Amino acid sequence: SDVGSQKERVVTEEEWLQKWEMGNIGFHKEQGHPLLQKYLDVLLNGRSGLRIFFPLCGKAVEMKWLADMGHSVVGVEVSEQAVKEFFSEHSLPYCEEPVPEISGAKMFQSTSGNISLYCCSIYDLSSSIVGKFDGVWDRGALVAVNPRDRQRYASLMINLVEKNSSYLLVTVSYDPNKHKGPPFYVPESEIKSLFG
């Protein structure tokens, strides 16, 4: 599969932080994603009180939606601004504490305790820090990680999920020779080789 000029493209952490600072966040959706609503039953699989992971969560409104349903939501986001905006836009009180295992990282937790957002690089996380998850909502994470980091990302995600978990993944399909990304084009064959 031809991924065009994207294979070598690297977007730095600083560039992501700058997108948030400049308000250049076209990837953020004010309304819940229709595909999550459509496939919610697949994610939950008849289960309640799940631990659901939001990789590269930004300030996704679906986090509150799922928490309000009684699930425990954990997200990771490099931008502290995004995390704080999530809590303020939903008028959710929270506390902030350092993450001892990760230098410079912070964890923001709703005072109700059902939403915990880690502010750090996703690659600093491990199951010993955040535990394992019953479900993952990956809307814009795999397509945002640098193409050269996909294997590392997929390995981490596989390590973070329970055996009977559900993983919902949204990708975008387009001619990678016409756009430099992100979002990056991830061919279906590559998704299969990454996640099996």
UniProtKB/TrEMBL annotation:
GO cellular component terms? cytoplasm
* Catalysed reactions, as listed in the record: S-adenosyl-L-methionine + a thiopurine = S-adenosyl-L-homocysteine + a thiopurine S-methylether
GO biological process terms, alphabetically, are:
methylation
Protein name per UniProt: thiopurine S-methyltransferase
* Major location (coarse): cytoplasm
Look up the EC number in the record and give it.
2.1.1.67
Question: Which domain of life does the protein's organism represent?
Answer: Eukaryota
